[in-house]
What does this fold into?
Amino acid sequence: MKRTLMNQPASGFTLVELMITVVIVGILSAVALPAYQKSVMKSQRSVAKGVLLEKAQLFERYYTTKNVYPTDDIGATTSPKDVAAGAVRYNIVPTMAADSFTLTATPTTAQAGDECGVLTLTNTGAQTPAANGCW
It folds into this structure.
């Protein structure tokens, strides 16, 4: 007995099945992408905090030997960078005086939307912002 096209079972996907799959992938992407971006910002913030703490240690070491803080930026450390893209995520600027210093990390590029904003560290150890687990 010969089979005709009408008697063969259908194969493949229907348009409805394909559209349901596209909708599910879209919903999952809408949930996952913001969480991923927040995680990337948090990791870049950790790198910036590490650089701030490293510079503060260098300034304190200088203070213990000379009894004054340096008047210019010492300790050539690199700014936090995204190694793959080479993009600077924070601009780190020290404000120096003989008896104090303030280190400021200002977010740039994609990091500018970070919930913590500008990070600062002073010679007294004061860290701002202190809310939302920024430090």
